[in-house]
Amino acid sequence: MSKPRVAIFDFACCEGCQLQIVNMEEELLDLLTHIEPVEWREAMSESSERYDIAIIEGSITRQQDEERLKLIRSRAKVLIALGACATLGGVNKLANGFDDLNEVKKCVYGDAARMPHLLTGQVKAVSEVVPVDYSVHGCPINAEEFGYVIRCLLRGTTPVIPNFPVCVDCKMRESTCRFEYGEICLGPITRAGCGAPCPAAGMWCFGCRGYVDEPNINGARDVMERYRKTVDDLKSRMALFNTGQEQPHA
Amino acid sequence: MPIVKYITTDQLLVWVNALIAAQTVYGVQAKEQRFAYDALADAADLRLDFDVTILPPKKFFQPLVETIMKFHVDGHYESVTSEEPFIIFGVHPYDVVAIAQMDEVFRANYADTHYLSRRERATIVACDIQNASPSMFAACMGTATVEDGFDILLTKIGDGYVVDVRTAKGEALLVALGDAPDADAGTLARREQFWDDARRFLNKYLLKCKPTDLPALLEDQYEHAIWEHNAGLCYSCGSCNMVCPTCYCFDVQDEVDWTLEKGTRVRKWDSCMLRDFATVAGGHNFRRRREERYRHRFYRKGQYLWQRMGQIACVGCGRCTTACTAKIANPVELYNTLMEG
């Protein structure tokens, strides 16, 4: 069997998720025995229009990006969304929370806001533009999980991505619940699999892996009251990675 | 002749350090504002005044993540078991009771060699409860003190500890202790008094029935409104299961390494509160609704294990009550509500 041709494309993001792949170091050599990278801006100069697997990093912010993404989708057999910007829209989606995007652009880019390459609009996750086959969650992604997903693809099996809250990971490393410190933590509604490094380091969960399926939003309201917080407090936390998903569908 | 010694706190430290020098000792230590079992490097870190640990000592017999098999895709495989002896220092009576229950669970039907291999190599140094945890009801459950299921039992009396040795494994640890006097009659009388108090007072919540009444109580409560009401607040986060000393469910996954030919079979703790817990091949989920999962846990604790092995699967440690963010996990509150009809 010939090696699958893999292309990695970046859209609006910090490219930190690609960097996690580069950072796989010696494991990178294992990866390269099984795949043939044909385009990967952060690691090579070549580019290609022929590939089996497209890995998409970043969120989609411009019309021209939507068209480029659709073209990539038409060329790829398998498409993977890589990291929170791609899977959720990520921090870029904070812009969608403002009524006037032009004001946001002026604030961010100043005089350059009218330059043609900054013709940005409503921010979208990759799945809002094209069908996504697999998602590697997180900000940044966990390289171990990325490797696992790739090995599953190569073996033709379905990767098992956790669909339970971060609380499970927190209990496993015996971290004290952030609510006990009087903080609002997004752990109870956020997809685990990260190993809960943030609560272990003294920070609440930011929700970078997105919601679990069927998060209990009504339950969250009650918990806010119990801990003398408001729903607005909770929403302000959720906006960082989950703008536009304050009312996730059941 | 039973061996019952009395040692000073200083002697305890010297003894534990001698044990650490000889083999792996897991002991209760401070972790943030709570307590947890971890490998002990220095006896000074041991906190026998702990109220409760975040995770129960079960984690040493059924690790959170455990490789149980190595395989090659050509069909060859080998089972993986651990054979390292170890000591767990500072196990509260309710956890001793829970361990005995888990022993029975993992021995029943198909004996679980991975669990039993670790369990047989463990020496359990139990310790009577010096400080009650915020949500405990061990006295209600009859687990505030314990008669057996340990190798040594420590009880703090005055400025020292009564060291009650019950097994050959326990006796083996005494070599490192050196000379110590037998506990005198006065000290033993004080210990009896301590136990009497523990059996009466180690409750922060009061269950309004005997634990053995729970199976009958649950008999006709399957449609009670409390299940749906509380499930409306439940995150299905699994915290109550994860911290429970008598929950033992696990998930098994195969993972291949980069050769794509060799791999490991790994089992991890699982939790019946999680949405996909009861999803089976074909995608059917037989406890799809949140209230079905929420109800299941209380039936399992109060009735199902009783039907299977004549034991109530709750030891009153209160860990679930503390761990639950929504504050709906307290078994005492739940069962008392059912009693009100």
What does this protein look like?
The complex is a heterodimer of chains A (250) and B (341). Chain A has 250 residues and is of the alpha/beta class. Chain A folds into two domains: 5-155, Rossmann fold; 166-242, no CATH class. Chain A is built from ten helices and five strands; from the N terminus they run βααββαβααβααααα. Chain A has helices at residues 16-22, 26-34, 63-75, 84-87, 101-109, 143-155, 166-172, 197-200, 217-226, 231-242; strands spanning 5-10, 36-40, 53-57, 78-82, 134-136. In chain A, strands 2-1-3-4-5 form a five-stranded parallel beta sheet, with helices on both faces. In chain A, helix 3 (63-75) links the parallel strand 3 and strand 4. The termini of chain A are far apart. The model of chain A has no long low-confidence stretch (mean pLDDT 92). Chain B has 341 residues and is α/β, with parallel strands linked by helices. Chain B folds into two domains: 3-62 and 83-201, no CATH class; 211-258 and 270-339, no CATH class. Helices cover 34% and strands 21% of the residues of chain B. Chain B is built from twelve helices and eleven strands. Chain B is globular, with a radius of gyration of 21 Å. The mean pLDDT of chain B is 96. Classes of the chains: A alpha/beta (250), B alpha/beta (341).
Q: How would you concisely characterize the structure shown here?
A:
The complex is a heterodimer of chains A (250) and B (341). Chain A has 250 residues and is α/β, with parallel strands linked by helices.
The number of domains of chain B is 2
Supply the CATH class of the largest domain in chain A: Alpha Beta
The poorly predicted ranges of chain B are none
Put simply, the count of helices of chain B is: 12
- Secondary structure: number of strands of chain B: 11
Strand segment tally of chain A: 5
Query: pLDDT below 50 for ≥5 consecutive residues: which ranges of chain A?
Result: none
Helical residue percent band of chain B: 25-40%
Strand order of the largest sheet of chain A: 2-1-3-4-5
C-alpha termini separation of chain B = 52 Å
The mean pLDDT of chain A is 92
Q: Domain count of chain A, please report it.
A: 2
Largest sheet properties of chain B: 7 strands, mixed
What does the overall shape of chain B look like? globular
Distance between the termini of chain A: 42 Å
Structural class of chain A: alpha/beta
Form type of chain A? globular
- What's the architecture of the largest domain in chain A, going by CATH? 3-Layer(aba) Sandwich
